[in-house]
Amino acid sequence: MSNLIEQASSQLRELISKAAAGLSEKGQLPEVPVPDFAVEIPADKSHGDFAANIAMVGARSYRMAPVKIAELILSEISLEGTLFERAEIAGPGFMNFFLGRKWFSDVIRAVNSEKENYGKTDTGKGKKVLVEFVSANPTGPMHIGNARGGAIGDCLASVLQWAGYYTEREFYVNDAGNQIEKFGKSLSLRYLQLASPAGKDVREKLGNDTEKVCSALYEQSGEGMTFEMPEDVYLGTDIIEHAKNYLDEFGTGLAEASDEERKKALVDYALPKNIAGLERDLKKYRIVYDNWYRESKLHESGETMRIVDKLKETGHTYEKEGAVWFRATDFGVDKDFVLVRANGVPTYVVPDIAYHYDKLVTRGFDKAINVLGADHHGYVPRLKSALTALGVDAGKLDAVLMQMVRLIRNGEVTKLSKRSGKAITLVTLLEEIPIDAARFFFNMREADSQFEFDLDLAVEQSSKNPVYYVQYAHARICSLIANLRAEGTEIPETADLDLLVSPQETELIRHIASLPAEIDLAARNYNPAGITKYVIALATLFHKFYDACSVKNAETPELMNARIMLCLAVRQTLRNVLDILKIECPEKM
Question: In angstroms, rounded to a whole number, what is the distance separating the alpha carbons of residues 372 and 447?
Answer without folding.
Answer: 10
